[in-house]
Here is the input.
Amino acid sequence: MFRYILKRLLQLIPALFGLSILLFFWLRLLPGGPENTLLPDDASAQQREALRESLGLNEPIIVQYGLFLKRLGEFDFGNSLQTGRPVMEEFTTRFPATAELAIAAMLIAVCVGIPLGYFAARKRGSFLDSSAVAGSLLGICIPVFFLAAMLKVVFAEKLGWLPSAFRLGAGARFTEITGFRVLDSVLTGEFDVTVSALGHLILPGLALSSIPLAVITRMTRASVLEVLGQDYVRTAESKGLQPTVVRTRHVLRNAMLPVITAIGLLTGSLLAGAVLTESVFAFGGIGSFIYESTQQRDYPAILGFLMLIAIIYVVVNLLVDLSYTLFDPRVRVR
Amino acid sequence: MPLLTVDNLSVTFTGDDKRPVRAVDGVSFGMDEGEVLGLVGESGCGKSVTSLALMGLLPSRGVEVGGRVHFDGIDVRSLPARRLRDMRGSQLAMIFQDPLSSLNPVVPIGRQVTETLRRHKGMRGKAARERAAELLDRVGIPDPARRLTEYPHQLSGGMRQRALIAMAVACAPRLLIADEPTTALDVTIQAQILDLLGELVRSEGTSLLMITHDLGVVAGLCDNINVLYAGRVIEASSRQQLFANPHHPYTAGLLGSVPRLDAPRGEALTPIRGSINDTIDWNDGCAFAPRCDHYTMECLTGTPELVPAGEGHQHRCVNPVNLDPGPADADRHGHVAEGDNVR
Amino acid sequence: MALGTDRVNKVDRLAELTAQRDGDAEGASLLRETFGRLRRSPMAISGAVIVGAFLFVAVIAPFVAPYEPGAQLWGREVMPNQNVFVGPRGENWFGLDHLGRDQLSRMLVGARNSLLVGVVATLLGFTAGAMLGGVAGAAVSLGRAWGRRLDAVIMRFIDMMLAIPALLIAVSIAAILGPSLTTVMVAVGLAQVPIFARLLRGSMLAQSHSDYVLAATALGVRRPRIVRSHILPNSLGPVIVQATLTLATAIIEAAALSYLGFGNPDPATPDWGAMLADAQRFLVGAPELAMYPAVAIIITALGFTLLGEAMRESLDPKLRK
Here is the structure.
């Protein structure tokens, strides 16, 4: 078990090394260069040259990469060109917002998708089943940013039921501990902040959950259908077990295995969807920042953020694989 | 009173877009307390479907079941689902063909044994675990206490089948149905499992319905044998009678296609030609006629009836073979000879 | 004599009785069988109808579009800043957009450009991905040490790419290329490369472990030939299904790129993604402006998805009976 984790983490190192080469050279192809972003248009050639020199851009590209790699070892991705602050700092201050949003979306997807998929499979061919199948097909076909904007217009701007932007209401006072507002406010006992933070999560969470919800519903349905036809379900029934025992211990427990893997793989689409959702709701997470960085050609920020996202994706999937071993004894022996 | 009576049982599969398939077509037989009955036939003859119908395990959708099944005087088919569940696992139990796919891969063996004890005997915790260990020990699994915590993939094929048997006999059922329990196993293991089954049912007085395609399996174990073809019983008799004196050409053919050590060297096996797909509807005549070497025009007009011939021996054939040339049967026998000429 | 007629009668009667049962026993080729199932699947039919209608509109668009899609013919009638929009009317069936252009003409011509984005992006992703995955799959199927090493190198690279969400790959490519229709095609297409590569390689690997490959090897068929004429053709099914599904993804992701500002800025060649991104700003005042392209995108994506899912189902050996 321990060796397995270690092996997986060690495998991450060459992958990240390769990724850094790829992204570094890739983003150097960006037209313009940072001096155009940082300096006004009427800056003199001398000023530009001085800036290039100070950023180390006049060194051979291999040397630049070497320097980049050296700092990478200390988790230093350089400074953002937009804000002048370290990329790592920008990331850590924004990441809790995105994580909170992604967790909210995943919770919605799991809590709705698994029961929906399960009952659709049990009542195969029923109205519920057809609606679940149709809904999950539709869910992956609606552009996320459009769904987010529609939710915002209808429920926030027209009906006024929910806030339309940001993570908290204007003027809210809160104590920052972890950056996760819901968690922090519960820890400090500021429950009015908890309510506000949750309220601000509903609409973006719903919008972001559309794709994972569709995938989890379909996956659960297909998986339950397959398990229902398995011999061991018949064995369980031949023992005269109560239907609830058959359904939970024998059907659901097996049917959840592929769904758990899917949840890990969906992290990627959540992070991509966050870019779109956050910019609609001005949520101020990493998604919004990546969006601004690409607009501003803030290449150290893009590079750093993409690498950190890749790391998060790999780590989340490692955690999912590890939790998988708790559910499936067959992968335990390694 | 017989323990189990099956009367005119029929099962029809009605797919969405396919034409209905009648898998079991009027099967009738009875079983006494403590009897070991073999249900023999090729794959596709409806023997597994019969066993699932007896247990009430066929899916409710796309399947039509007809006829009556009485267990211990109770009409099983009209029993409410709750009552039937109470009987399954305690009175009636079943062992399946493929032990790997029939065991839940993510639940420890022990749990799969104790869940039956808990359901029907109300045993929990330590008591249930100890009883489960006893059961595993009873079916010949070494080191049962350790095996309880293991998962199906950690056991060998024979051990898995033993575990399935332990689950089936956990509540001392009165009728045990074994559906091809040895087919998925190595030959050496097959014999061990058959010995175990025979020993278990004889010592507990359990009735055993043994479903198989293998005449070798029934030869050593069964008191009586029913041969099934295309969803109907075509011959029923005691084991000795059947092996010594098969009446139906199909049974005779099955026996003729089994290799024997006492056969003269160089003697070729005589296989039955064709396959179970070469069949006609029972309403039009004998379903075996297309593969039969003895058929006449008579075989193709109307359904042949199951007729008695000798003590406890019945067959469903117009032109039976191997009938004892007794005075009562002389006429029939002559008829067979004539039929042979036609060939 | 009598015996002879009896025998003829017997054979005839038997033939007649057995013939009744043999309706569907004839062997059909796998391809025809798959196709036959597709034709009976309601999912496939509705998908094909939607895709067919979309193709039809895309082809005839330039000939039937009533106005020049880029011309601001009624520019003075629309004032988005003061919330003045023009809805459907006699001369403009779908009304005007925020710059006073005919919405119907833009939708029709937009179909053509959206189709172009979908097809070109998918072809790009499919070709590059299938080449990478095919080389890796072939290398490992050949079963030599160098083959496994080549496979390991390619797959490390692919797995690396897979760790970054496709949209973010597309965004970083788009950032390099600058906003244009070509950018959208290239960015969306390249972002799909790792998925295609992974899929083809996995599919080839599964095939190379199958019994018929073992049988061919045992018969002395040479490895390269097995890879070329057995493994590769049999592995293409899932990749083709993925390509159909990618046509839907590509159109949706193209819209997302437009929303993020990397879309096509050329007013003369509108596409649904850019139209939706533009209209998003006026969602409160004129929601119908966004509705036209949004509904068109959703329905088209649904068409390709239905078709792809139906194909996946008909190729699934588990459902084949």
Notes: The first helix of chain C runs from residue 2 to 19. Chain C is about 70% helix and 0% strand.
